[in-house]
TrEMBL record:
Residues 13-189 form the Prephenate dehydratase domain. It comes from the Bacteria. PROSITE patterns: PREPHENATE_DEHYDR_3. GO terms for molecular function: prephenate dehydratase activity. This is Prephenate dehydratase domain-containing protein. It holds the Pfam family PDT. InterPro entries: Preph_deHydtase (IPR001086).
Length: 189
């Protein structure tokens, strides 16, 4: 569902939060398909949404996709160098708590890597066998998956694409998040 028309700025490259496997990457692919860019998708993933905005201001990408749940999204609306081109509602990939396939979680209070935005989901999804958790904040759901893969934490609140990419498995039920996504372009002078 497009709220505004974003088709007046040709889609050359879409920037968003990475690494590969984030909900933002899936939303960026949706923008690529919706606004009719030809050829294989040119999606550029950045370590933070701010880095994606810097790339937009520098002309390295034509569009940036930002989740409305991101706590810093207001900065994009206030930045006179950026313009809102479109907004759409799209469910995220499945979210859940994942572990390495080769490691059981032995503690009653696991360390859980998470992006700050979906932090509340940990309590919703944490299996009853755990008495609590310690949240470890990272820049993205894919970064959370990498933290588990690398043995830095016990669990990750992450997405199905990140679970598949890093050979993890869910230990909780899963769910999507109904999300509003904002698409920004460089403001015209």
């Amino acid at each position: 569902m497009a709220v505004l028309s974003g088709g007046d700025v040709p889609v050359k490259a879409v920037g968003t939060l990475g690494p590969a496997g984030t909900s933002s990457e899936q939303a960026a692919r949706h923008v690529w398909r919706t606004f009719g860019a030809d050829g294989p998708p040119e999606i550029r993933l950045f370590g933070t949404y701010e880095e994606a905005a810097d790339a937009l201001r520098a002309g390295d990408v034509s569009h940036v996709v930002v989740a409305s749940a991101y706590s810093g999204v207001n900065d994009y609306y206030m930045d006179t160098r950026l313009a809102l081109a479109s907004a759409f509602i799209r469910d995220t990939p499945l979210y859940g708590l994942a572990r390495r396939r080769d490691r059981e979680v032995l503690t009653d209070r696991p360390r859980v890597a998470t992006h700050p935005a979906p932090l509340a989901l940990i309590t919703q999804l944490l299996p009853e066998r755990f008495s609590g958790h310690e949240a470890v904040k990272v820049h993205s759901t894919s970064a959370a998956a990498i933290a588990v893969r690398d043995g830095l934490v016990d669990l990750a609140l992450t997405t199905q694409p990140a679970v598949a990419a890093h050979d993890l498995e869910f230990v909780s039920r899963t769910r999507t998040i109904r999300m509003l996504w904002s698409v920004f372009v460089a403001a015209r002078d």
